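Journal club side-thread
Mid-discussion, someone asked how the predicted structure for our own chain would compare to the paper's figures. Pasting it here so we can look after the session.
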Amino acid sequence: MTTNTLIPTLDNTGEVPVLVVRPEGAPRGVIIVVQEIFGITPGIAQKAQDWAKLGYLAIAPDIFWRQQPGVSFNPDIPEEFTQAAGFMMKHDFVRGQEDLRAVLAWARAQKAGKVGLVGFCMGGMIAYQMAARTDIDAAVGYYGVGIAGLVDEAKNITGQLMLHIPTLDGFVPPDQQAAMHAGLDGNAHVTLFDYEGLDHGFADTFGARRNEAGANLADERTRAFLAEHLCGIKFKWG
């Protein structure tokens, strides 16, 4: 599925292409879905659609639009994986965060309730950054990379943040996982979950990386977490 909406940047340097999926009826809140390095893939589009089915206004921004709009790579094809990694290496994360601030401002202007963000891989790190550097209401990061070097920023989090950490993540080795726990455990704004024996990408919508049991557990926790912090609906979860 392609993007269907353009959101002006805050500095007027362009427009961020986003996929917007609207729920039936009035939204109960907003979920920004932030892609992995592979673009707005069919899997990311499906995640946006799933949030809309749960009653949220879902927004999936095209993170790499300044390089090339509309890229979508298959992580199970080595050549495409390599291409996606190249886009990530060239990505301007500072400007990219400003683009997401524009998306957050647009989301709030819709008056559709509180705003949450769910990000995967690169998007998992972005979820952490948005929690620490903006006033977003809640954020969830799946197997976020590079977070260990950012734990000092956790003191700035005013909303709520959940991180899903697979223990066999080849991109986040054990020393980095330990640093995340050391820096974030005990922070009242942060919830960490470890997934023993699972690897990076375990919650992919489709494809060889998906672990069904792990993905379902993480998604259940995410849904309950966001329902609580965006909608005030408390579930028993853990």
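Post-session note: The two ends are 33 Å apart (CA to CA).
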